[in-house]
Hints:
Elements: H1 8-11, E1 21-26, E2 32-38, E3 41-42, H2 45-49, H3 56-59, E4 61-62, H4 67-78, E5 82-90, E6 93-105, E7 111-120, E8 133-134, H5 139-143, H6 145-167, H7 172-187, E9 191-196, E10 207-215, E11 227-229, H8 234-240, E12 256-264, E13 267-276, H9 284-378, H10 385-417, E14 425-428, H11 429-446, E15 450-458, E16 463-466, H12 468-484, E17 490-498, E18 502-504, E19 507-509, E20 512-519, H13 541-547, H14 553-563, E21 568-571, E22 579-589, E23 593-600
Parallel strand pairs: 15-17
Antiparallel strand pairs: 1-2, 1-7, 3-8, 4-5, 5-6, 6-7, 9-10, 9-13, 10-11, 12-13, 14-16, 15-23, 16-22, 17-20, 18-19, 20-22, 21-22
Amino acid sequence: MRSRPSFPTLAAASPADAISAWIMVLSPTAVVESIQTVGVKALPETLTANWVGRSLAEIVSFAAPHALSQALESLATHRELVQLPGRCPLGSHSIDVQWVLQPLIGLDGQLFRIAATGYLIDPHGLANIPWLRTAEVPAVVQESLPAACAQLQTYSPRLTQITRNVRWTLDLEIIRQQTVEGLGDLFGVNRCLVCSCEAIPNVAPQTATVTAEYTRLGDLPSWQGQVWTLAETPCLSAAAQSSVAVVPQRQPADPSIVAVATRYQNTINGFIVLHDRPDRPWSDVELTLLTDLADQVGTAIAHATLFGESHALAIKLQQANASLMEKQLEFQEARRQAEEARQQAEEASRLKSEFLANTSHELRTPLNGMIGFLKLVLDGMADDPAEQEEFLAEAHKSALHLLQLINDVLDIAKIEAGKMQIDMGPISLKELLANAENFMRPLSDQKDLYLEILLPATRDDITVNGNYQRLLQVLMNLMSNAIKFTHEGGVTISAEVKPQKVEYQGKTWPGLVKISVADTGIGVSLEKQDRLFQSFSQVDGDRTRQYGGTGLGLAISQRLVEAMGGVVQFISMGEGLGSTVTFTALLYQKPVVIDKEPVYPPK
């Protein structure tokens, strides 16, 4: 916290002397927005009122020609207090004033307002100036000048935040509630109200309805929904006739009330009313800031009202056009379906031909490898037993690859024919992911990729309902694809528990487990993603020849997951941006989740 500035001339005053000062709120360009005078010698209000709207440079003669502009630049860049001596000419007289400029910084970090305090350096020399008035100022006022600046520093950014809250929404209820809660909390009042009224240009409202309310004390009765007549409500009547916040006349025991009308294009569309304890004073700074906020709230209410009316009109127009569009859409849909059926037939024929060509190539590759390595062994081409064992291992590897290809073809044939039987039961998700990791870890290590598996923290094991071998087959398909198409980075497998109930095959399950396989690989362009789950289809023929495969992996995985009550989804923002495949499995029993974020590896 910065220390309070000290002035020798003020410190030398006797205890009986009260400090005379002006407190101003300036714009960032030093235009006076409000002024308050305190002390035993102060200018009359009629004179100081004329200062509002004028630059401080027009009112005060500073010692140096460019002192004020340099001070403004320092306030905007260094955010520190600036002291300036100056003289305030008053007819044939002039007053020496020591000015302290304090920056008020908004939530965006920019200079929002300037708190300017002018201390009269020699109050004893003011006795002969007839314009000055004498007033009794309690000692607490003298001590509160720095506190007033601190209050301005507090109010300005918080009022800025309230303004943002009401301007960033088009919901009338939220605008009104944000206003009453923000102002009620900021000013610490007992009650804050927002009243709505019919906005008619050039016509004063007759009634107002309380549409939002904040009460600090729980025992206060609610006024929500009350309808007030302006003719019988003095605070609203006074606010409607004034362009600024007003403090109506009242009895000493009555609550202290401030009211201000909210306007848009000079038309009243509501009121803000604050109630507090009877001895609560309201400063000019508070009233000015409240007036500024009322203008912002009025604009927000007008925009939200216009949006609501436009939205309602749009709905009516949509309903009116719906019946006219329905038959046209039906006709277009019939034409589209006929054209789509023709295109699908042609595409299916082309895909099957392409699939047969790719599959025959994929089958020949491991088969030729087996024949080649076995022939080398049979012909005695191995130089030693170690090399012979290496040839046999390569032949075995090719045989396993061939078997996998044949199994894929047989699986898709069974699925297409509807003859695949899947027996389902409880499966430990941790064990399933651990086994998949054991199979895939050598492939990722061979390409120097990371392979990370994450589970949510639960008190008990996560159990899914499915077929262990088929779920493992799906996982290995997805992980194999992710590793195959990733050259840098790695693959992350994560699980998330979705505890919403699911109906499947006449039985209610406690939820789903969403398993995601994300990689940092080559990705898939948006226009080609719709072909990923088609049987006999590869996204790109050139890519198939480069990476190999029949194009059945995702199609088989999707059919298997759907047969076990789940859903498969593919997500990629485009080529070179990686991809994520997710699938769901039925939750056999609901675990006790400690942390839903998947941050724990299976152990």
